[in-house]
Structures are given as structure tokens and as C-alpha cells.
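Hello again, I could really use a second opinion on something today. I've been staring at a protein lately and its backbone has me curious. Can you walk me through what the C-alpha cells say about the fold? Take your time with it, there's no hurry, and the full record follows here:
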Amino acid sequence: MSLVVDGRLNVEAVRSHFPALEQSQVFFDNAGGSQILGDAINSIRTYLEESNVQLGASYHVGQRATAKYDEGFKAAADFMNSSTNEIVIGPSTTQLFSNLAQAFALSFPDDAEIICSSIDHEANISAWVRLAKIRDLKIKWWTPSAEPGDLKLTPDNLRPLMSDKTKLVTCTHTSNILGTIHDIKAIADEVHKTPGAMLCVDGVAFAPHREVDVKALGVDVYSFSWYKVSTQLSGKKRPDCVNDRLMQVYGPHIAVLYASQAAQQSVTSLGHYFHTPADTLATKLGLAAASYELVGAIPSIVDYFGPDRKQTWSAIAAHEQNLQKILLDYLNQREDVIVYSERSADAKLRMPVISFSVKGRSSKAIVEKVDGSSDFGIRWGHFYSKRMVDDLLGLKTDGVIRVSMVHYNTGMAAPAPLLEHLE
């Protein structure tokens, strides 16, 4: 069945691709990890059964393994409109940013300044704070506003922080708490007004919902995760601290990072000395951390979106707008509810990652009530955006309530039945 019929998302066809959706659990914690495509599961199993050998061997199973890995690498590059020598695949976005920071360490000038968004997931903060500490560099914090409804990164609130010493600016495409979409192209243009300055973007919360085109965005570095954790909503409580970059694009537990050719000029290879010339980003940063069978599953994820990916992404955006409108309309009319950042359901402005709190009530208690009275899987906490939740939102005790939807949520799994449990 086609995913798109007459320009609309065929949700029945969508759901048939995800075996986990046959359970009674309603997955509204997708920002912590989506369910995995059945074709990706089958690909992983087949690789392990038929091709589980070291890459590069000349015997026929070795050739098959290498070809499968190379196909996955090429599919990953194609998915974000890059070349294979501009990407590296690794276990998580957190790890890839950490590797990149280490590789940047020797090339940054002694007086370099790094601008870090304070509304990011810690993955795109801690690596740069650590680099600044090691090199005694200056960190400037990019904080858009103290108002919960106005936490949006823009060229205008970045501009006062820029200087001729700025070497790197880091930010999120979409916050895993707020769901607001930032105009990365405009931000990239602002950053590049300063000669030698680079923009590093965390796309983990963006990539499951919209097409990623790193060349059109004009970024220097961009990373997102392919993976999910299938046991995430198994019915057992999991502490918030487990939520380390479990965002997803419906695939296995790996991530990809793009770095432009220009950005790679600042990268010192972390690879073995005999890997010369280190002419690909994977050689420089990969450290043999890309699981063969998981990389081999990437083509099945890309194929899922069909021959016309732009049409599929457009239909996904329209469907998700309808889903988030149901929940936002309800939350916005309640005087005791604070919705953090964008209150509109417009798909051009936000993703269906919706965080809120209820005045005078514990976020943890509300989520546990929903857990105990329904099959809805939602979460409470800081979700590794702890600096923002603690310092800007003032929710140090138990954080926000987060409901995060993706395009396979619909029908009885739409937000409407959840609302009665929030009363």
C-alpha cells in the first residue's frame, strides 16, 4: 500500500510497517524513541544470519557484507543530501558531537569564542563546554528569552553575541522540549557573516518529522539519530536519566553526523596513524563505531518514504499538524496550563513535541495517573535539556509533561482520548 493517496497520508498503510503498533500501548513518547520499521528489523536479522563477517574481505560473504554496509552509508548520505565523504555514522549523536569536539581541539585559536544555545539537549552543549574548559576558550550563552512562550532562537538574538573571534555557534533545529522550528538557513547566513565561523546543528528532534537537506540549510555540521529503543514503553517505569539522545528516524540505534568540506579543514583525525590520507569524515571521526548490521538497515528506512520523498514528508507534516492541533486546542483553553514555547499548531512553526505543566500540580504525579489509568505512554522530566528546564522554565523538581507524536499516531491512538486523563 502507498503511504500517500491523493496527497493525504494513508495512516493504515503507515501503521502496517511498524510491528510494535499491534500492542495496546499508545506511543506518545516518540521524542524519546520511535518504533522501528519492520523492514529494518528484518534487514538486521538477515545481515546477522548471512553476512556477519569483517568488512573488506575478498571471499564472497565478505564481499556481500561490505556491499551491504556501503549501501547503507550511501543511503544515509542521500537522505540528508550530502556525499559519503561528508558523513560519519556512530552509536549516538552525543558520541558524535563529543568526537567532533575532540577533533576540533587542536585547530581552534587560543582566543576563539564558542556560542552555545542554552535551550539545547545536553548532547550539543557538554561537548563544547568540555572543549572550552580544556582549551581555556570563552563560552557565550545564547538565551533567547526568559519568557516560556518566547523561547525561540533567531538571527536577531544571536547577532549581539557574534564577534570576530567567534569560531563555532551551536544550536538545535527543533528543541526536544519545545518543538519550535528554528530558521536554520537564516541562522547559518548570520553565522557566516563572520569569516571562519561555523554552525553546528542538533537535528535529532527535527529529522523524524521533516526532510533534511544540509546543503539547502547551509550548515557546517548537522547530526541526528536513526534509532529508537523498543523497550522504552514496555510498561516499566524508566528514570528520566535514561533518556540519552533516544530520538529517532524509525530505525536502529545509530546516528549520523554531517560536516562540510570546509568544516573538515578544522578537524584533526582521531583515526589510526596509517589511515593516510584521512580523506573521509568516517576515517577521521568514526573510530570503527558504526555497527555493520545497523548501517546495513538504513536503506530500508530511506525506501520506506517512497520514490517521492518530498510528497511523503508533506503528507506527514499535514497529518501531524492535525494531531497536535487536537492537544494544543485543549491545553490552550485551560487557564491552569502553561504550554512552553509555540502555542500554534501550524506545522510551519512547530513539531508535535508538546511540553507543558499544570499550575499547582506535579508533572510526575499527572504522568503517573495517566500511566495507571490508561495505555497512553507519556513522560515527565527534563529529557536532557536540563539547563533550560531548570534555569529558564524554573521546573527543577520534576520538569515538564511531554507528549510527543509522530505520523503513525492516529485513530484510537490520536490525542483526543488522552485529554480525559489530563482532567
